[in-house]
């Protein structure tokens, strides 16, 4: 009898959709023009995002997903804003990043400090600390 009560209670409890899961992206190519940032999760070094002006590509719940830029702010380095909000597929993502250019890097820069905040609807938000590199299409020499 007790087991039946527990089963009935478990079935009556509404299921809450899981928060978004940020997975590993497959290898991505350099852009033909301009620059793109390639970001890895600090915690486990998984390649989790590629950012181009106007677009964030992530692996969301096991599917490659492109989110369009909805709002950008802060200074821009190599065509990439320091703070950009992306939206699409029922998800909002905010990327905050610091891009540091160095003389020793040709056609790129370092993403020295960054985070991606993902929110789906009214669910909990996840924040993933990331870092990486900016790669640019080679300039004509």
Topology:
Layout: H1 2-12, E1 22-23, E2 35-41, E3 47-52, E4 55-60, E5 63-77, E6 80-88, E7 91-100, E8 108-120, E9 125-136
Antiparallel strand pairs: 1-4, 2-3, 2-9, 3-4, 4-5, 5-6, 6-7, 7-8, 8-9
Task: Kindly summarize this structure in a few lines.
This protein is mainly β. It has one helix and nine strands, in the order αβββββββββ.
Describe the protein in words.
By secondary structure, the chain is mainly beta. The chain has one helix at residues 2-12, and strands spanning 22-23, 35-41, 47-52, 55-60, 63-77, 80-88, 91-100, 108-120, 125-136. The mean pLDDT is 87.
With strands numbered from the N-terminus, the spatial order across the biggest sheet is 2-3-4-5-6-7-8-9
N-to-C SSE series? HEEEEEEEEE
- Helices, by number, come to 1
Shape type: globular
Strand content: over 45%
Structure summary, number of beta strands = 9
Overall pLDDT score:
87
Measured between the Cα atoms of the first and last residue, the distance is: 80 Å
Main beta sheet:
8 strands, antiparallel, barrel
Low-confidence stretches: none
The multimeric state of the shown protein is single chain
Rg calculated over all Cα atoms:
19 Å
Q: Helix coverage percent of residues? A: under 10%
Structural class: mainly beta
Quickly list its features:
141 residues; mainly beta
């Amino acid at each position: 009898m007790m087991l039946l009560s527990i089963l009935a209670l478990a079935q009556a409890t509404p299921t809450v959709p899981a928060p978004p899961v940020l997975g590993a992206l497959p290898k991505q190519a350099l852009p033909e023009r301009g620059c793109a940032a390639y970001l890895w999760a600090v915690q486990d070094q998984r390649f989790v995002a590629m950012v181009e002006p106007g677009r964030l590509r992530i692996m969301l719940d096991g599917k490659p997903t492109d989110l369009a830029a909805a709002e950008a702010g802060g200074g821009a380095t190599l065509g990439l804003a320091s703070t950009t909000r992306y939206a699409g597929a029922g998800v909002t993502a905010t990327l905050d990043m610091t891009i540091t250019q160095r003389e020793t890097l040709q056609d790129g820069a370092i993403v020295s400090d960054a985070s991606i905040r993902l929110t789906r609807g009214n669910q909990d938000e996840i924040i993933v600390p990331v870092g990486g590199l900016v790669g640019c299409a080679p300039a004509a020499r």
